[in-house]
Amino acid sequence: LLTAPLISTPLETVDALVEDVAKFVCVVESYPEPEITWTRNSIPIRLFDTRYSIQRNGQLLTILSVEDSDDGVYCCTADNGVGAAAQSCGALQVKMRPKITRPPINVEIIEGLKAVLPCTTMGNPKPSVSWVKGETVVKETARIAVLDSGNLRIHNVQREDAGQYRCVAKNSLGTAYSKPATVVVEVFARILKAPESQNITFGSVVTLQCTATGLPVPTVTWLENGKAVSVGSIAESVKDRVVDSRLQVYVTRPGLFTCLATNKHSKTFGAAKAAATISISGMQGNKRPLIKLYKGDAGYCSTYRGEVCSAILAKNALVFFNSSYADPEETQELLVHTAWTEVKMVSSFCQPAAESLLCNYIFQECNPSGAGPAPKPVCRENCLAVKDLYCFKEWLSMEENSQKGIYKPGLMLLTLPECNRLPSLHENPSSCTRIPFFGKVAHAADWTCYSGNGQFYQGTANVTASGIPCQKWSDQAPHLHRRTPQVFPELFDAENYCRNPGGENERPWCYTKDPAVTWEYCSVSPCGDALLSLGTRKPNGETLNLPPPPPFSPTYSMTVIISIISSFALVVIFGIITLVCCRHRKQWKNKKRESETPTLTTLPSELLLDRLHPNPMYQRMPLLLNPKLLSLEYPRNNIEYVRDIGEGAFGRVFQAR
């Protein structure tokens, strides 16, 4: 009796671990026997797929080694051609023990920054992630959190966060631990106890103590007036990551002693410093008594009595002395003195501006206000002029070195001013100290001609020597520049007039409106006797017709380059023409020689043998051949051509007699 297929044992959901064996049983009752096929997610399973085994006439499907990708719905379909086909489906859920695919790694972090330790896991069911520091479970706080991804995030890292961390992944099938990762917290060097300033008698022995800490443990260096002190007079001890350094000094002169603590981190340097002055009581020298005016808690106003800045600071001007120093006058003078030697080593263009900024930065103008004396910082525009123009390369080099922890001895005690934070002389002229080096002398202004290098020329010429209109000094198009009216007083209300800001060039100039020409000198005449060089008349009646000096500008340089290239091109063209003529002359001579050669007919009987040139080699033959072989040689001149026979093994063959 024919019966349609009937599945008596429907498929069920099967749970299996990775790399385990999973089986699906599909028992079918029918007559005749049905053909059973299997599918996974509606995709047929091939009989030749080695990952599967189909037995018992197709009623048993075995997955030999379960993988994570085997998750899905498996169906068996039975069909024997009688009635409708029967189908049953069941799911395979692949279970996986926890596995850590990205464990945490060692981290070196600076105190106060954020640290993130990675921990990526996989498993089914999805494992929960926790962290262990040493043998203690890490608890989440406002600073410490375990993210949904499993990563551990620590905000504002502290010293106590250092240690070994492991992440733990756990689900119902098991637990996985990562390898320990070490967190090293690096701490910038910090001075715990600074040396104290002292006033002692001549010849005394004094001990200065400096205590510093940091991670790694910092190195302490002592400086006297900016120069390293000999190692023999320093005693040092380290305990609990705190270094205690003591300097013993035999005092014969006043000095500024600095304790410099530095340590190197993975990506940067840490540095801290503290200074103390050693002064000798009763040692005034030839200095006049110090008059303290408008004394307050922060400091006092007084006239400058030093030597280093005497030629730069205004005479009898009130400057501010900081009372945080034991001897403010001596300490500030030593600060300038230690940096002065380094300033002497910069370029000649930078040096005068740097010296003026240094003196006015250390000895700031004093403002005796009602709340007490206060220093007036350097004006922003003067500071920017030194930073962005006069000492651009030197300033940039100092900033890069300070970031790398490299300090020159004379500049170690000074920090570069942040120019953009200083008050502006245009917003409130009375709130800052103007540096006289950048001041514009009103009576020195020139209007119709220029004196010297034309720094104080205030005329209205606004066209370059080649006739190109000038760009406004306040504009940044078509040419970007740093010479703005906010930095240079001589450019105030300058519009697009020719100027020489800072006196950096030989005469007045301007940026041009031509995008191809950055700047050019202007056709402004020099004042006074300099006019004679332009063709003016001398008292004795003689006239000097000297041409004006060429403007050394991009246009002039381009003209010179084009002239040189043109001259070179003419020389090359002339050489080519000469070479062609010589070749034509040589060809003409060859044709003439060929025309003079007698024409031979193709008939062998008309060959004029008497007109053939003798072979000169036969005149030298006795010298070239062995005398015994000479008798075997038959002279070619005695051979008479008869006819052409044809092609031979070694070329053409001729008959001769």
UniProtKB/TrEMBL annotation:
Domain FZ residues, every copy: 296-435
UniProt KW keywords: ATP-binding, Disulfide bond, Kinase, Kringle, Membrane, Nucleotide-binding, Phosphoprotein, Transferase, Transmembrane, Transmembrane helix
GO MF entry, a single one: ATP binding
Domain of life of the native organism: Eukaryota
Swiss-Prot/TrEMBL GO biological process terms: homophilic cell adhesion via plasma membrane adhesion molecules; synapse organization
Domain Ig-like positions: 5-93, 98-184, 189-279
InterPro entries found in the cross-reference section: Cell_Adh-Cytoskel_Orgn, Frizzled_dom, Frizzled_dom_sf, Ig-like_dom, Ig-like_dom_sf, Ig-like_fold, Ig_I-set, Ig_sub
Domain Kringle: from-to ranges: 448-527
Spans through the membrane: 556-582
Record keyword Cytoplasm present: no
Protein name: MUSK kinase
Gene, per the UniProt record: Musk_1
